[in-house]
Amino acid sequence: MAKHRFDPTKKDKLFNNDRKDRLKPMQLLKNHGLKEGDKIADIGAGNGFFAIPAAQIVKSKGRVFAVDVEEIMLRDLKINAKKADVDKTIEFIKSDEYKADLNEKVDFMLFSYLIHEIDDKELFLDNYLSFLKSNSKVLIVEWTKNDSEAGPPKEHRISRDELKKILEKKQIKNIKVEDIDEKNYLISGIKS
């Protein structure tokens, strides 16, 4: 991994109010079909920006598999999940750089601000998408490939077109690209 990898010492930036206001994680997940009882894998879960709202949506009937390579991020996620009273709904999984064993297939898979960090994007997606049930949703949130000061350098970002082409190769259908704002975009699709 890692032309550019998020520095875990900057983890507090992930929960700032500006970021919450821009991304609206609860609304974003609901708008893309996450519902009570679903099983979701949050790949690159960090300290829980999406995993905690996901757990609040799926409730005790569902499950959140929060996957991260950084032990420190998973530790913080456990603390944050306990504070939000959703720790029983989340399974915390320490991953290798290219794979984790989720033990079961999921209804929804989220990658937030992660794909640009991966050197071999196709291998990475092959490994993870194998845990996504057929006819289930994949959602990827990424940095727009521009010169904004927030986020990684432009040369480390992945363009919408490049990411869309990779997903098409991985048999993801009904691909939709949406701007979140001038700094961020998302791509969603269905695994065939």
Give keywords:
globular; Rossmann fold; alpha/beta
Structural commentary:
The structure is a single chain. The protein is an alpha/beta fold. The protein has a single domain, classed as Rossmann fold. It is 28% helix and 27% strand. The chain has helices at 17-23, 25-31, 51-58, 71-83, 121-129, 160-169, and strands spanning 39-43, 63-68, 90-94, 106-112, 132-143, 172-179, 184-191. It has a seven-stranded mixed β-sheet with strand order 3-2-1-4-5-7-6, with helices on both faces. Helix 2 (25-31) crosses helix 3 (51-58). The radius of gyration is 15 Å and the shape is globular. The model has no long low-confidence stretch (mean pLDDT 88).
Percent of sequence in beta strands: 25-35%
What is the third-level CATH name, the topology? Rossmann fold
Name of the level-1 CATH class: Alpha Beta
Residues in helices, as a percent range: 25-40%
- CATH architecture level-2 label: 3-Layer(aba) Sandwich
CATH superfamily: Vaccinia Virus protein VP39
SSE series: HHEHEHEEHEHEE
Total domain units: 1
Number of helices: 6
Please give the radius of gyration in angstroms.
Answer: 15 Å
**What is the number of beta strands?**
7
How confident overall, as mean pLDDT?
A: 88
**Anisotropy-based shape:** globular
Largest sheet: 7 strands, mixed
Uncertain parts: none
Which strands sit side by side, in order, in the main sheet? 3-2-1-4-5-7-6
Distance separating the two termini? 27 Å
> Which structural class fits the helix and strand makeup?
alpha/beta
